[in-house]
Amino acid sequence: PGLVGRADGGTLFLDELGELPLEAQSQLLRFLDDGEYQRIGEAKTRRADVRVVAATNRDPAELRPDLFARFKVRVLLPELSARREDIGIIARQLVARAAERSPELAERFIRDTPRGPELAMTAALAEALIVHDHDLNVRALDALLWQAMAEAPGDVLELTPSLVQALATDRAHAEPGSPTEGNPTPEHAA
Length: 190
Prior knowledge:
Blueprint: H1 2-7, E1 11-14, H2 22-34, E2 36-38, E3 45-47, E4 51-56, H3 65-70, E5 75-77, H4 87-101, H5 103-109, E6 110-113, E7 116-119, H6 123-131, H7 138-151, H8 161-173, E8 187-189
Helix pairs in contact: 4-5, 4-7
């Protein structure tokens, strides 16, 4: 049925909308206007009733203005480094999501407590993740957590030497004179 067909009657999430070429943005615009689409390789026009949610890390001004105007609610989400208090919660969610796909991860790193599931992580790793500037936002945090899970010698996520190196390497990319200097990558959701 394709992604649009499977979303019929529900929600279709389009990640990285800003990466869509202008021609594809035009096609999406037509779909948003009348709900009609064609499956690849079919001449038949179909209809779908979907709510479309999209996200981009690009400046919304880079989208076709008429496409951007179709998204009625816009949420501007600051960089992860600007909301460090969320890092612990997001880390728990990312590990929980990984554990859903890999039950042995849940057994190793998630503890049941009276307050609910808790992530088994050393204070040193938690602090390093909180003070780190996550240039790629949640994706960078997710990659660091996967690295921590892969390298953990036991059942607690630790700040290993290679994680220290990964954090230092990421920070070096954001130092003055680097290609990312002055180019923040806020997450924009439309």
